C-alpha cells in the first residue's frame, strides 16, 4: 500500500525539477529584478512545454512502478530527459531555473510567459 504514496512522492520530485534550485536562488533573484528578452522567454516557454509533456508521459510510469527503486530509476530517467529538453531549447538548466524562480515574484514576467505559451499553443 505504500508504493502508491511513494510513487506520488517521486512524481512530486519529478514535477519539482524546474523549481528545485529556484528556491536556493530566490534571494539572488528577488534582490535584483532580472529582465529577460523575448527570445529567451520563448526558449523558456518551449522548454516548459517539453517538461509538461514529459511529466505527463512519466506520471503513469511512476504510478505503475513496482517499488521505490523502480520509481527512483524512472524519476531519474525523466529528470535526465527534462534537462536534455531544456538544453535542446538553447537554455542551460540554471537559466531555466532562474527564469522559473523569477516567475514566482514577478507577475508581469509571468504574464509575458503565459502570453507566449498561449500564442504558440498547438490547436487541440
What descriptive keywords fit this protein?
elongated; mainly alpha; 6 helices; disordered N terminus; 124 residues
Task: Give the topology.
Elements: H1 2-16, H2 26-31, H3 38-63, H4 68-88, H5 93-105, H6 107-119
How would you describe the overall organization of this protein?
- By secondary structure, the chain is an all-alpha fold.
- The chain has one domain.
- 76% of the residues lie in helices and 0% in strands.
- The chain has six helices and no strands.
- The protein has helices at residues 2-16, 26-31, 38-63, 68-88, 93-105, 107-119.
- Helix 1 (2-16) runs antiparallel to helix 3 and helix 5 crosses helix 6 (107-119).
- The longest helix is centred in the middle third of the chain and has 26 residues, at 38-63.
Task: Work out the helicity level.
Answer: over 70%
| Helix/strand structural class | mainly alpha
List low-pLDDT spans: 1-15, 18-31
Shape: elongated
The separation of the N and C termini measures 37 Å
How many individual domains? 1
Number of strands: 0
Q: What is the beta-strand fraction? A: under 5%
Care to give the gist of this entry?
The chain has 124 residues and is an all-alpha fold. The protein contains 6 helices and no strands.
Amino acid at each position: 500500500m505504500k508504493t502508491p504514496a511513494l510513487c506520488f512522492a517521486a512524481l512530486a520530485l519529478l514535477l519539482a525539477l524546474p523549481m528545485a534550485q529556484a528556491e536556493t536562488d530566490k534571494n539572488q533573484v528577488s534582490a535584483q529584478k532580472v529582465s529577460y528578452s523575448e527570445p529567451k522567454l520563448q526558449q523558456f516557454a518551449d522548454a516548459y512545454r517539453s517538461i509538461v509533456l514529459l511529466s505527463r508521459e512519466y506520471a503513469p510510469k511512476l504510478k505503475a512502478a513496482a517499488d521505490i527503486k523502480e520509481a527512483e530509476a524512472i524519476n531519474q530517467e525523466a529528470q535526465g530527459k527534462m534537462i536534455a529538453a531544456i538544453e535542446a531549447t538553447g537554455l542551460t538548466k540554471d537559466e531555466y531555473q532562474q527564469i522559473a524562480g523569477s516567475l514566482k515574484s514577478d507577475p508581469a514576467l509571468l504574464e509575458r510567459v503565459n502570453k507566449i505559451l498561449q500564442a504558440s499553443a498547438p490547436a487541440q
